[in-house]
Amino acid sequence: MTPEAVIFDCDGVLVDSEPITNRVIAEEVTKLGWPLDLAGAIKAFKGNTMMGVCTLIEMRLDAPLPDKWLHALEQKIAAAFRLSLETVPGTAEFVRFLTSQSIPIAVASQGSVEKMRTSLGKTGLWDYFKGHVYSADMVPAPKPAPDLFLLAADKLGITPGNCMVVEDSPMGIHAAKAAGMMTVGLAPDGKGSDLIEAGADRIVHSANELTAFFQRKTLCQ
Question: Where are the transmembrane segments (predicted)?
Fold first, then answer.
C-alpha cells in the first residue's frame, strides 16, 4: 500500500542537527561537571525533549541546573544552527518530490516550533510544510507516546494507518508504532539495529531510497 501522507521527525531526519545540538550540550554539560564528548551526548540524549535532557542532567549531577541555563543553551544551539546547519542528504529532494505529487507532509518533533522555524528556515524546508509543523509542546505526552503523531495525522486529515513516519530514534519508532502508523527508520550510518529492535517496518540508509520507492509507486498507478 502506498502511504497517503508522510510525517517526518525533524532532527536527524530532515536536518543534520544532532551533531551540532549534542556538541553544544556536551560542551555546556562538561562545564557543569559531567564530562561528555559528542558520542556520549548523542547516546544519552538522542530523541529526547529538551526538558527530558535537563531532567537527565539534573539526575546525573544530583543538583538542579542553574537559573536560565536551558534558555542560554537553546540560544547557543540556535546560533550554531544559523552558522552551519544543513539538510540530511536526500531529504530535501524527497520533500520536494512528495510536494510535487501533492502527497501531504508534516513534521512532528520533540523540539519547539521556534527551534524548527530556525532549522527548517535555515535549510529552506520550512515553506514546504505549509504550517503542518507540530511540537511535543502541543500534546499531553511527548514521544514515545503516540500523541504527537496522532495530532499530525488528525491535522492532515489522514487516517493514522495510512501515514508513513520517518524517524531516526527508537523513541520515535515506538511512538509511531503506538499510533498505528507505518514506520521507516533512517540510518545514514549504515546500521539501524536499534531501530529494528524498536519495531521499524523498514530501514533505509538514505532518503533517496524513499524517493525511489514513491516514484515506483507513482509509475504503477
Answer: none
